[in-house]
Design brief:
Blueprint (H helix, E strand, L loop, with lengths): L2 H11 L2 H16 L3 H27 L11 H24 L5 H20 L7 H12 L4 H20 L5 H26 L1
Helix pairs in contact: 1-7, 2-3, 2-6, 3-4, 3-5, 4-5, 5-6, 5-8, 6-7, 6-8
């Protein structure tokens, strides 16, 4: 009886808007990123999340969507398109900013890659972005092994919650797992490449 409320709580705790800012803090701290850069990256990450939430709320308020989680395919397409433009725009701005740290463009670019994967796969399945973002975050926080393991554990709980809530199938969770691992690996490769 308590499983459904627990699934809802886990789904909120594991939402990308919650997980990514935490991952930015942990990742930057583990790699010795200057505090000012971490603050800017957190601000951008939280700002993007808030803009996406406001966009969703406005769509519901205007009667264009049924619910803020954009469950209907047309709603999801609008949300993913809007989010992808926002993320890749932020990545471009971070990349072009004078003396821009890799964090300022790698976080939004990799996040955009998760959303882009959802867009590309939309006709075949509804990619579990919760799972993908959680695993991307788990790999991005390395070399902090403890945080990475905690995020992997959270990902398992979130995957269960998404299945329990009927938001995804096992296949959609599985594809989200693959996308998350690939994007997390790309993030780490990007850092290594930039460092030379």
């Amino acid at each position: 009886m308590f499983r459904l409320p627990l699934a809802r709580v886990l789904s909120v705790i594991g939402h990308p808007v919650v997980v990514l800012p935490v991952a930015v803090v942990v990742s930057g701290g583990a790699r010795g990123v200057p505090a000012s850069t971490r603050s800017t990256t957190i601000g951008v990450t939280v700002g993007i999340g808030l803009v996406v939430l406001v966009f969703s709320a406005v769509r519901v308020r205007l009667g264009h969507w049924k619910h803020v989680d954009a469950s209907q395919p047309a709603e999801r397409n609008q949300l993913n398109g809007f989010t992808a433009v926002l993320l890749f725009g932020a990545a471009a701005a971070g990349f072009l900013s004078p003396g821009g740290s890799p964090d300022l463009y790698l976080w939004p670019a990799c996040s955009g890659a998760v959303v882009l994967a959802a867009i590309v796969l939309r006709r075949r399945l509804k990619l579990s972005q919760h799972v993908a973002f959680n695993l991307f975050a788990a790999l991005a926080v390395l070399p902090s092994v403890g945080a990475a393991l905690a995020l992997v554990g959270l990902t398992g709980a979130v995957a269960w919650s998404r299945l329990k809530l009927g938001r995804h199938t096992r296949a959609e969770i599985g594809v989200g797992t693959v996308v998350g691992v690939v994007v997390g690996a790309l993030f780490q490769m990007g850092l290594r490449f930039i460092r030379g």
